[in-house]
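Quick one, probably user error.
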């Protein structure tokens, strides 16, 4: 019994517990979710005269493997950051009234993954084995006020996103450093960033 304990003690100490490494996104990755300040209001105006205001909620931060269980979860403490914009106008139905961008960083060696849920228009770039891989589509945007965003990306239903029940969105355009720029409804109404 003593031999068994002398063998198990170092094994448990080396794999079961101890210091874990908190995973942090790179500054470039973090830019996706730090584009707005809590309480900031973002105004959009449509080609049909309507206005919608989105309000930034406090950035949500969640870290997993808090108990540092190396044996089951590994040596890293992954991080999830979630940006949520509360919309004055519901374009996503009762189940998807807000706009969110979730960034997951699981390991320092791997790039962060992004999950867009923009009022029920779902785009996810996590590389699920065997699953469809989401790709950000480069789509330079010039807004109706003339402002240009050459590094913007499109999230489009049927190309790199899907609808969740109740969504009215056909497409959305997001810039890593400027945030949400434009969104288009199935009805043809287009909302551009106004401020």
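Nope, works fine. Designed sequence:
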């Amino acid at each position: 019994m003593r031999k068994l304990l002398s063998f198990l003690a170092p094994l448990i100490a080396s794999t079961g517990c101890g210091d874990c490494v908190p995973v942090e996104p790179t500054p470039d990755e973090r830019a996706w979710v730090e584009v707005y300040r809590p309480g900031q209001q973002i105004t959009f105006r449509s080609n049909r005269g309507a206005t919608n205001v989105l309000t930034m909620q406090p950035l949500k931060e969640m870290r997993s493997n808090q108990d540092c269980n190396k044996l089951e979860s590994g040596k890293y403490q992954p991080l999830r950051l979630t940006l949520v914009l509360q919309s004055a106008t519901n374009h996503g139905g009762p189940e998807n009234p807000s706009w969110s961008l979730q960034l997951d960083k699981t390991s320092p060696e791997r790039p962060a993954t992004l999950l867009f849920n923009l009022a029920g228009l779902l785009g996810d770039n996590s590389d699920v084995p065997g699953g469809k891989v989401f790709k950000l589509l480069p789509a330079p945007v010039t807004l109706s006020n003339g402002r240009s965003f050459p590094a913007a990306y499109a999230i489009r239903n049927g190309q790199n996103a899907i609808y969740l029940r109740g969504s009215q969105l056909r497409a959305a355009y997001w810039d890593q450093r400027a945030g949400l720029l434009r969104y288009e409804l199935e009805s043809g109404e287009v909302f551009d960033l106004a401020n």
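The chain has a mean pLDDT of 87.
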